Amino acid sequence: MTDPASQPRRPGSKPVPPASPDAGASSDPLGAAPTVNSAREPPQTGPKISAETFSDEIRELIQAAGGEPENRHGRNVRDMIVTSLRMLRDGSDTGEVKLVNRATAELRHALTVFRPYHETPKISIYGSARTPEDHIDYRQAVDLAKDLAADGWMVITGAGDGIMRAGHGGAGRAASFGVSIRLPFETSANDLIIGDPKLVSFKYFFTRKLVFMWMSHAIALLPGGFGTMDEGFEALTLIQTGKAPMVPIVMVDAPGSGEDGFWARWDRFIRGSLLDNGWISPEDTSLYFITDSPAEAADHVRRFYANYHSQRFVGDRMVLRIREELSESQLDALNAEFPELVADGRIEQSGPLEGEIESLELPRLSWLSTKRANGRLRMLIDRINDAATG
Hints:
Layout: H1 55-64, H2 72-90, H3 94-114, E1 122-126, H4 136-149, E2 154-157, H5 163-171, E3 176-181, E4 199-202, H6 205-215, E5 218-221, H7 226-240, E6 249-252, H8 262-275, E7 289-291, H9 294-304, E8 308-314, E9 317-322, H10 328-337, E10 342-350, E11 364-369, H11 374-389
Parallel strand pairs: 1-2, 1-5, 2-3, 3-4, 5-6, 6-7
Antiparallel strand pairs: 8-9, 9-11, 10-11
């Protein structure tokens, strides 16, 4: 997933250069691997391939493509070329090479589609493709998307029917992205997004899911099946483990459903089966927010960015960019409430740290991080936002 030192832009910030995803992938990602018809090639003999093996040729190739071989960007491209060449020496079979090639191509294309919209905050909306248009969940998704789109947000969905179509319907075509997966039993894209240049089609689930998380500044979950559970648990896991930056996760129930709501019953399972058995920590339940109101869900998303802006690591220091400085008493209160986040020293307020190049005008909170207890980090962000909104 995304390197914590580099992440999607938060609302109001400048683009943050994304880290390159790990090129190493299983030959059977979620059952989507190509059929291998060729025999495995034996490892090739010859000199070990490194960045120096074909340094002159690679440098000339990068220059011919308009790049600068010696800067950071050019060196990363060089390493990608070297990784590809190493597959010739590794004895990789045709299916493995095709998978790596296709995955890289899918990610590259997706990045070109999203790149013009770096300055715009985006929410991914997940839910069942089977939800009919006359269902209350469909209406809830429409209202949530419409509310946030009116405030300048864009909506990302899986481009299918049901809740995905509802998200596009609420946001409108101009504010919608489609991130579709080719499946034999579902339509490739709904009628509201098909033909739009912001529709990206994927063969592999793992590249599609990476793009969802990479581009999202918030996540909304409506009731759904295995796919919705998969997407929701993946988001929770990546944020809980620090492999993705913190974003708000809202779960929207039917209005007035109370304790019988889909997500209310899900929450009882989480607390009764996971929390009570010690499989998660109490603070992990702060990573998600359940409501039966689309307006409240939208307000929860907006409030998350009331003062909090974005995060990154500089070495072992967690850095939170904020919009407004905290008072000394507010800073002391954070240190008193969240000591378990700090490996040594205390939470400090400062300007940009050495090596930072983004959003230099914003104040920072930073500390030597334990890199644990991300549920508590979410609670700290809530306190920062409380300081701004009162």
